[in-house]
Write a structure and sequence with these properties.
Length: 347
Amino acid sequence: MTRRVACLFLALGAGCFLSVAAVPENSDPVEAIKSYSDFAAIDLGRVLNGDVLSERGSLMNFPNGISAQTCYAMALPADEAARHLQLWDPSAYSELKVFAFHALHMPCDPADFQTLDFQTRQKPVHWLLDKTVATTPARSELNLTRDEARQLAGCLSKQADPQRASKCWAKLLLARASAFQQQGLAGTTPYEVAGEIVSPADQLRNMLLEQLPISHEFLPILKGIGLLGKDAMPSLTPFYYWSLFDADYHGTISLGAVYLLPVGNHFQLIDLEYYVNANYYASASMYEVWPVQAQGKSMALVWRGDFFAAPTIRFTKGTERIAYGALMLQDIKKEIHCMQDEAKTKR
């Protein structure tokens, strides 16, 4: 498969001198996807019949990074599918183990986090409560700054009170979400994890540096959100949200933003988790949505790339990391099938 390599201008101002022609607006969607993805072949018939094609991402030199790619169809016109992807609420599907999912206002306010609830029988949430109570100003197993650890410890005072923990976390999340809304990724304060400073934005950039064809394809939206390019402030307004879910049996809270950008006759989206309080550091799900026709109906052909930065990945190698990627793909496909089923009801 021929891959396109392009010049990426990073926030640090670094550049290169490689260039290629952009994909023409009227190009074949299948050929366009093959030109930047890991799919050497795409059976459009299978995809339009509901199959989800998948590829484990290539092994990265970046120690914390892992990725996967999928290709599938949605029974909606491309513009409706793109909007559906941007606003989709996964909490309606118990198999996805999302305990809560809520949109944030712009600007966000305390009321946006009132439904955050640690009073539940869910074991993963109890795990998060235990780790929250165990947090001290000097030590925490959660993704926090030293200041945030101090705030949580002072707020709880070693009391395993679920209602109080909910309020303590709501205050912390409000501060992080407000900073992101005001400054974009420049407002994401790095975590202080086991004596190491971890920047979610840098984790994402490092992964994308190893995916030049994909980064080139998505350069319009990556620049628009301030992840790549010289401008730190995003020029696109996203859908903001927070969620509470089960990640490997651990209750996890994330703050995210889903950006949507029309590009010629298709659409690009990025679902960016810019704060995750446990288990991994950051993630980005990237979508390219193309219009296609099937039996006289307008449908959407979707390429999706998922990029996760997690501390546990650095300790996996070879077949172990491949197995980890296969498990990740199982969860992604489960989510895609839920999206596809919901899209069918909207026709």
